[in-house]
Amino acid sequence: MPPPPLLLLLAALVLAAARPGCEPAWDPAGGCPRLAAVDSATCVDLQLRTCSDAAYNQTAFPTLLEHRSREVVESSSEYVLLSVLHHLLEGQCNPDLRLLGCAVLAPRCQGGQVRRPCRHVCEGLREACQPAFDAIDMAWPYFLDCGRYFASQQEGCYDPLEKLRGGLDEEEALPSGHPATFIHFTHHSYAQMVRVLKRTAARCAHIAKTYSIGRSFDGRELLVLELSSRPGQHELMEPEVKLIGNIHGNEVAGREILIYLAQYLCSEYLLGNDRIQRLLNTTRIHLLPSMNPDGYEVAAAEGAGYNGWTSGRQNAQNLDLNRNFPDLTSEYYRTASARGARSDHIAIPQHYWWGKVAPETKAIMKWMRAVPFVLSASLHGGDLVVSYPFDFSKHPQEEKMFSPTPDEKAGPSAWTLVPLPPELQMFKLLARAYADVHPMMMDRSENRCGGNFLKRGSIINGADWYSFTGGMSDFNYLHSNCFEITVELGCVKFPPEEALYTLWQHNKEPLLNFVEMVHRGIKGVVMDKFGKPVKNARISVKGIRHDITTAPDGDYWRLLPPGSHIVIAQAPGYSKVIKKVTIPARMKRAGRVDFILQPLGTGPKNFLLGPRRNGPGGAGPHGEPEEPGQEPLGARRLPEASGSKPWWWSYFRSLGQHQPRWLLKY
Ligand SMILES: [Zn+2]
User: Fold this and answer.
1) Which of 41, 211, 511, 652 is geometrically suited to a Cys-Cys bond with 60, CB 3.0 to 4.6 A?
2) Does residue 631 sit within a domain?
3) Ranges for the Peptidase M14 domain (predicted)?
4) pLDDT tens digits, residue range 220-259?
């Protein structure tokens, strides 16, 4: 994706004259006069491209910044800022901030009066978006001064973001060529959900595709949107992630958030967002917004805001889908003490099929067989916490009790007898990748909803919370290569529409951060000496009684915390190969570790011991340097050496003497 033609835009803009005005940089004493009451105005058509999706279509001159014509507005540094803000903030806070700025640069005109945008909207955005500005060392734009250019509700203000939360019908009326980021933060009926997913796949046809994994009991397609650089196919060594919403039909926040996420990923990819392009170019992401569309219909009939605890939870057969998976956890506990007992790829017991198996459950199991998933999250509602397996308690009376998986209790360093600190256990790392960047999960104030999970950092072992059998997460871990966590998104299971936008804002970064975790640990290919892939080879890690198996192309992914690990590859008919790998603490890209297996009775007698101890240079298991592009936002964009301007200044350089010095902090 080439960068947008910003330079052309800037070159055209700089030709026009600047306008007089009152900016902090020009008046350090802050002596700008307060805006006088607005008198009658002449309304004209709003023709600014950057503001074409505003909630109104009439504006007036002079503007609130005293710009006297459209040309003057277009040549202003304020307008240039709005045009590039999306790129500067990597998609954060947009289109909201742009629309807020438009409300000042191109004020709404109605009935011969200029109307000012609401102060409380400005204040809310400023609170939410200030960190994004801090991260790139940019000052808050002076023209988004909430006290100065905005009005109170008593003064008859309007909400410039109203349309963002409006109904789907308006979407049909949008002008073509409209920016692709327009997400409607509303509830979606089944038909609307299908339409949005299909439309998103059409808009991003080169990176997105919809497919059905089966039908619900009442015959609704279980529709998945897949995003990757080559949709429709598994690519060698590209890890696969699934995100599942609405397994309980009345817990709808996850369903909506995944519908928004689908549109967000598509739009951001098209807009050239580095992080999203990197993510989708290296990861195959499958979104199933609704696993229980029949239950949703029952809950939706009672309406948003209804906080009934169970209506619509089950599928149309009255089965709780998160209790309907094979109970392999009991199987695991029964055999765990036996020598050589394993906690992976446990077969489904025959008697499971004698019971009622929901078509939705079957569809998920079939899906898991077809795709080599590495990581997964199931999105619920009713509390605010991230839980990780096991969900079924090992307590003999099934009372709640900390019941960790082998990936947690036995540290990967167990073979060296060094106890593993809790913060370096894989399931905790996965849960924290979500909770640690979720503003409400980390909120220490009284605003926080739900049980008191704050002391635990808003993460908990499922069985330590409450125990149940037949859950989807336990099944993922014990039957497949996939690690799944459960996210409780908030206390209200069916939130009112006006809460959806905030829910999305709170969960967007946690979801991205979580999905990026699929690149932790190691990955590689297992092949024979002729280079032929070996499928179903076992990858074991000493100290963790949980193997991963290779996919049909011989590729595998093993999520592992930082540290040293002994990794063993083996397959029937071949001798074992053992390697020692060291994963540096800050490494955010899976280290590549391939294995070449020798047929039994030939080749080197037993195994190749390849101690690949790496120096402190942050190298991967094969000595490759850490990828610099994987640094978190902020770390990479520290202020430059004294005297030089921040990286984003180049966007404004061509404005000459009209450069927005008011954006500079130093
Ligand atoms: Zn639930």
Assistant:
1) 41
2) no
3) 186-518
4) 999 999 999 999 999 999 999 999 999 999 999 999 999 9
CB 339 within 8 A of CB 472: no
How close is the Cα of 597 to the center of ligand 1, in Å?
Answer: 44
Furthest-apart CA atoms within the chain: distance in Å? 94
Judgement on whether residues 287 and 414 belong to the same structural domain of the protein: yes
Residues 6+ away with beta carbon under 8 Å from 155: 116
Q: What is the pLDDT of residues 377-415, one digit of tens each?
A: 999 999 999 999 999 999 999 999 999 999 986 444 444
How far is ligand 1, taken at its centre, from the CA of residue 191, in Å?
A: 23
The helix or strand, by DSSP H or E, that contains position 194, with its residue range, turns out to be helix 190-203
**Residue 294: which residues within 8 A CB-CB, separation 6 or more?**
216, 217, 218, 220, 249, 315, 316
In which band, very low, low, confident or very high, does the pLDDT at 20 lie, cut at 50, 70 and 90?
A: very low
Same domain, 268 and 381: yes
Question: From ligand 1's centre to the CA of 290, what distance in Å?
Answer: 12
What span, in angstroms and rounded, lies between the C-alpha atoms of 235 and 516?
Answer: 17
Give the end of a domain, one of 481, 501, 519: 519
- Could you tell me if 484 and 529 lie in one domain? no
Query: Is residue 644, in this structure, part of any structural domain at all?
Result: no
Q: What is the pLDDT of residues 127-170, one digit of tens each?
A: 878 877 887 889 999 999 999 999 998 888 998 887 765 443 44
Q: Are residues 491 and 553 in the same domain?
A: no
Which among 310, 323, 361 is positioned nearest to 493, based on CA atoms? 310
Which helix (H) or strand (E) covers residue 208, if one does?
strand 208-215
Pair 63, 143 in one domain? yes
Take residue 433 and report the two structure tokens written for it: 């990748």
Alpha helices (runs of H) in 316-395, residue ranges in sequence order = 328-335, 359-370
Q: What is the pTM of this model?
A: 0.68
In contact, 187 and 252? CB cutoff 8 Å: yes
The answer to whether 553 touches 563, Cβ cutoff 8 Å, is no
CATH at residue 61: 1.10.2000.10
As annotated, the active-site residues are 488
Is 93's pLDDT higher than 80?
Answer: no
How many domains are contained in the chain?
A: 3
Helix (H/G/I), strand (E/B), else coil: 8: helix
443, 429: one domain: yes
The verdict on 374 and 236 lying in the same domain is yes
Cα of 3 from ligand 1 centre, angstroms: 42
